[in-house]
Amino acid sequence: METNPFNFQKRLILLFLFCIPTLVRGEVAKLPIYGKGNYIAFSDLKSILPELSTKLKKYTSVGGIYTPQGNLQFRIGSSFYTLDGKIYKLPKAILKKEDEVYLPLDMVEAVLLNLIAYDVRYQFKESELLVLIPKETVPKRSLGVKAIVIDAGHGGKDPGTSDQTGYFEKEVSLGVARYTYLYLRKYYPEIRVEMVRKDDRFVELEDRSKFANRVLSDTRDVIFISFHCNASLSDKAAGFEVYYLSQSPSTETARETALLENRTIGKHKNPVVSEIQSQMLSSVTQRRSKKLADAVAEQYEKALSPEIPSRGVKKADFSVLRGSLMPAVLVEMGYLTNPEESKKLRDKTFQKKIARSVIKGIHEYASAKD
Prior knowledge:
Number of domains: 2
Distance between the termini: 37 Å
Helix content: 25-40%
CATH class of the largest domain: Alpha Beta
Structural class: alpha+beta
CATH architecture of the largest domain: 3-Layer(aba) Sandwich
Radius of gyration: 21 Å
Strand content: 25-35%
CATH topology of the largest domain: Aminopeptidase
C-alpha cells in the first residue's frame, strides 16, 4: 500500500446560498482535497450527502459505498473499484489513515454520477471540491431524445489531422456528420436535427457549444455528438474511442487527445460561453453523457470491429463538450495516421456504416431509463 503523504487535518466549510443561472438555489460546500490534489475524505463527502454509507471488512480491507441507488465496491490499497459488475481502474489507490478512508477524485466522481439520485453540481479546484446540493431534488425520469446537434469537427482554416496522402480530418468528420443527419431525417422525422456546420467552414469551439445551447433553449431532451479522427506519432496506433466530459481524464493519452482537440480555441472568447464553461458540472448531465457514450461505443464496436477496434469509453476535458449544457459525447472514429484505418475512414460506404452505428447507439440511449 502507498505511504500516505497527507496533512490529515480536516476542514469542512459550508458556504452561503448560491445561485448559478438555470440552477435552483442550494447550499454550496467546499470539501478539502488532500494528497497534492488527489483525494477526498469519505467523511467529508458523507457530511453533505448523508445517504452515503460505507462498510469495511477489518481483515480483508474490502469495502463498499452504499446508497438506495446502488453500491460501489473497493479494496484499501487497490487502484480498482467495481460498479454494476464492471471493473474500473483508478489513477491512484484508495487509502486509509486511522479511521478515515480517502477516495481518489475519479472515484468521487463515480459516486456523484452513479449513486446519487438527484442532480448535484460539482467542480474540482486545485485544493478543494465545490459541491452544490439543491434544496429540492429532481426525480429521475425516462431518457428521451427530441433534438440532436451534430458537430463535424474542425473545418475551414482548421483541417485537423491528416493521413499520408493529405486527406484531412475535417473531410471525414463532415462526411460522417452529413450521413448521420440524412439518416436521422429519413428514419426519425419527429426528431429535430441540427448540424453545426454543413460545409467546409471554420467554427470556433465555443461557438459550437453556443449553437447547441440555443437548440436546448427551446427544445427539451437535446443531445450533442461531435465527430473527430485521432492521430499518433506511430502509424500502428489504431481504434476508435468515445469520450464524455470530465475534469479528471481517464489516462494521460486521453488528456493529450483533449489538448490536441482544444488547440483551436479562439483568441476572442465569447464571455457568455466562457462563463458557462467555468460553471460546475451537472452529475445528471454527466451520468447521461456516460450512458450515451457507452451506447454509442457498443453499437460502433458491433458494426465496425475488428476493422476498427474499440479502445473503449474514456473521459477528458474537451472544450466543445464543456460548453454544451446537455448530454454530449465526442467520437474519435479512428486513426487517420494509421494507413489501414485511413483507407476505411475515407471510404463513403464505411462512413455510412459509422453513421448508422452511431444512430443505433442514440436509439439505445433514448430507450434506456435514467
